[in-house]
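ugh ok fine here u go
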Amino acid sequence: MVTMSRATEDYLKTIFNLAHRAEPVTASLLAHELGVSSPSVSAMVKRLEDGELLTRPDHRLLQLTPTGERAALRVVRRHRLLETFLARILDVPWDEVHAEAELLEHALSERLEERIDAALGHPTHDPHGDPIPPRDGPHEEDWGEALAAVPPGRRFRVERVSDRDSAALRYLGDLGVLPGVVVTVEEQAPFGGPRWVRVGDDRHPLGEPLTHLVHGHVVDGDAS
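structure:
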């Protein structure tokens, strides 16, 4: 049986997040995401395999077992509840809650987790639009489509904004590109130029890296 240390939980959560972003999870990608060495990843992967939390569909790819997925979901739930608590109750900016939750999630008891959940009114999504896994039952990790893929002339409801880059989050938040907001894709500049979007009465250019961080769904057909 694997001891659920901070490092173990970080690995499980990271593998879960990568897999649900449809990225092939490899040891090298895991080392990059966690900022650790390849030998450290190899040692932890072996430990997770021995504990039946992780399997290898082939020699390169890593995949959580059903047991590993359930363990990862418990960590993800605590993390996203903490982000919501920090944003709603302590008014921590949405570009800072991820780093703070990373520190707190490993120390949160199940009892306090449920108290926070109840105090917040059992929220379904965190400040970035990420769905909060329920304590029991199925969980859907839907990313929708990226703003980068939406053709000009369409209206797009923002549902999730990736929290991988705090500076990008801060910038998008300042522009009003937030979960629940409907933006209009007006123009794609040629030759790798920015994508122009309208947020309310304001028009903003977004470079390609930013448009890949914003996810949601097209609404109401075209903008006309």
